[in-house]
Amino acid sequence: MANANMEKAPILSARDVEIQFSLRGKKLKAIRKCSLDLYQGETLAIVGESGSGKSVFTKSFLGMLDANGSIVGGSIQYDGKDLATYKTEKDWMTIRGKKISMVMQDPMTSLNPLKKIGRQIEESIELNQGIKGPEAKAKALDMLRKVGIPDAERRYNQYPHEFSGGMRQRVVIAIAVACHPEILICDEPTTALDVTIQAQILDLIRSLQKELNMTVVYITHDLGVVANVADRVAVMYAGQIVEYGMVEEIFYDAWHPYTWALLSALPQLGVKGEALPTIDGTPPNLFNEVKGDAFAPRNKRALAIDFVEEPPFFEVSPTHKAKTWYLDPRAPKIEQPDSIRRLREKMKLKERG
Amino acid sequence: MAEKEKLIEIKDLQITFGSGKKKFVAVDHVNFDIYKGETFSLVGESGSGKTTIGRAITRINPVSAGEILYRGKRISGKISKDLDREVVKTCQMIFQDPMASLNERAKVDYIISEGLINFHMYKDEEDRKRKVAEALREVGLLPEFASRFPHEFSGGQRQRIGIARALIMEPEFVVADEPISALDVSIRAQVLNLLNNLKKSRGLTYLFIAHDLSVVRFISDRIAVIHKGRIVELAEAEELFLHPLHPYTKALLSAVPIPDPELEKNKKLLVYDPSIHDYSVDGPVWEEILPGHFVYGNQKELDGYRKEIEESR
Questions:
Q1: Considering A112, A282, A300, B222, which has the largest number of Cβ atoms within 10 A of its Cβ?
Q2: How far is CA A94 from CA A79, A101, A129, A271, B167, in A?
Q3: pLDDT 10s digits, A136-183
């Protein structure tokens, strides 16, 4: 299925996007020339640590950057238009909610505590579809049922505080998909939830995706969630995508040292009594110009060139590219770390017990 | 297994909130022991009462029935002032959210030494400063950080400050309430390593409270699974993962995300339905079904579990 996608033209195509924030008179380059293609019907997961820019990057697709941030370079092609040139709220209202929609991380803060649940869903329908009154209400009720909220008529008239965390997240999802968007961006949709509820929410998003034929982008730092939902994975570090590929390629045949580090720091792979491998140091300060490979200072096996010149993307397979000098034919032969090569066998062993 | 020293004993613990019509039983009939030097984990969904138990041990929440023993002495309910001070000092807590658990208006220096000041655990100003610097170094921070405010630190660093604050009291027992759930993947590993190293170097005993079973397996010696205020299963970590018996434990295990696309996409999700238990005639008991492996159920269920064990052997 995914391979068939590759032949199609992407529905959204971001090219060399640069996003800047001005903070206390200084310029912070949050996104540094980031490119990404989204294909119809696929599920893409963006992973990376906090501050890597994964939220900022996707927020720029629907004009939700904070007031001090702006797109200063590159283009975001969608539906024949360049979203990077959109400036006014009026422009964005043609996209946001209708075409591209977002589910936020924390269901406790993303709902209005003073408004009834039903009204909040209705609002989105009225605003974006121009339906009013009983018709909108019927649609809102329908939406509530669709996201698996039992007893929708009664729940319609309740306030957010009467809902549990999992149920609130369902409501947030209902609001986001009420207008059948083409692209749904889920920003850490399950981080604030319990494991059992997390599994249910992921199932819900998956079934909605199938029903409404949406493209879903997950932003997460939980690789377990990624393994569950994603067709493709993009790894972000310091405002750039450093590696992307099909989910199997990232988990079993990763090439960027940062992806290696992320994978081997998983507690699930830890051996009891031994220390977990960690990533030392901190991500680079993006107020300063980053020279060479941004991950090099934290990489114990960095090459000399990593500190001088920024690596381009090298192709591992037609669907898998990594931005590291390790893949340059001139580079000394570098083997993937044992922990990555053993990842697969280890997980299989664990599963069998 | 050799007889180990029991540090904490919890007997028929019940904790209720409110009174009269609004009375709510948060924790009921909870029994377990924590041995010296082990990491004991409490796992359950939110609202299951796991944090309440942790808070009861550190004397934050009052107990309504049953008792908690610390080194053989009762520490629940009304106790002498001296014992109270000892418990407050030797049982420390690490909180979940490092963004909310530090006083925003106090410098790190004060945050870490607050316990010292309350208990007069230092000779003079110089001694206090030395102790703070030592605690900071022990958790992998620089002594210079003492003069800064919490907002100047990242989540992982803040959690380290929270750990330093607990350590400076030289505790014997630490309740770690979801210490890593609010942290990033890469930082999680660092904090887990830190907790493990401190356990070795200081001989600490942990009560680790979590909802993420994958982390718990790596860090704990024994695990108790709690559901709606009742412990439904308790076993050694590996035993629990390999031979879960109670349906709730199975459901919880099936929900753990595995970082492997092939396994993860083929896994079957089990849903726990509490109505499968019929306790109307045959009352449930807390039974040691195998040495060290406890499970909660009535006679009929226990027979079923025994059969399951036979078959898997």
A1: B222
A2: 12, 11, 11, 52, 55
A3: 999 999 999 999 888 899 999 999 998 888 889 999 999 999 888 999
Q: Measured between CB atoms, which of A194, A247, A278 is closest to B45?
A: A194
Closest CA to A314 of A324, A304, A306, A305: A324
Q: Is residue B146 a contact partner of residue B164, using CB atoms and an 8 Å limit?
A: no
Alpha-carbon span A341 to B269, nearest angstrom: 28
Contact A202, A195 (CB under 8 A): no
For residue A91, the distance in angstroms to the closest alpha carbon of chain B comes to 35
Chain B residues 147-186 with CB within 8 Å of chain A: 154-155, 184-186
Q: Where are the alpha helices (DSSP H) in chain A?
A: 2-7, 54-59, 89-93, 117-129, 133-146, 152-156, 165-177, 195-212, 223-229, 247-252, 257-264, 338-352
Which residue in this structure is represented by tokens 């695990």? B223
Distance CA B19, CA B62 (A): 13
Q: Which residue of B has its CA nearest to A248?
A: B261
pTM of the full predicted structure?
0.84
The alpha-carbon gap from A192 to the nearest alpha carbon of chain B, in Å, equals 9
Identify residue A10 by its one-letter amino acid code.
P
Which chain B residues have a beta carbon less than 8 Å from that of A344? 260
| Cβ pair B48, B23 in contact under 8 A | no
Write down the ipTM of this complex: 0.75
pLDDT digits (tens, 9 = 90+) for A192-218: 788 888 888 999 999 999 999 999 999
What six digits make up the tokens of B159?
Answer: 């959690």
Over its C-alpha atoms, chain A yields an Rg (Å, rounded) of: 21
CB contact (8 A) between residue B269 and residue A278: no
Interface test with B, best of A46, A169, A195, A250 (most B CBs within 10 A): A195
Note whether B46 contacts A165, CB cutoff 8 Å.
yes
Chain B: residue nearest A198 by CA? B255
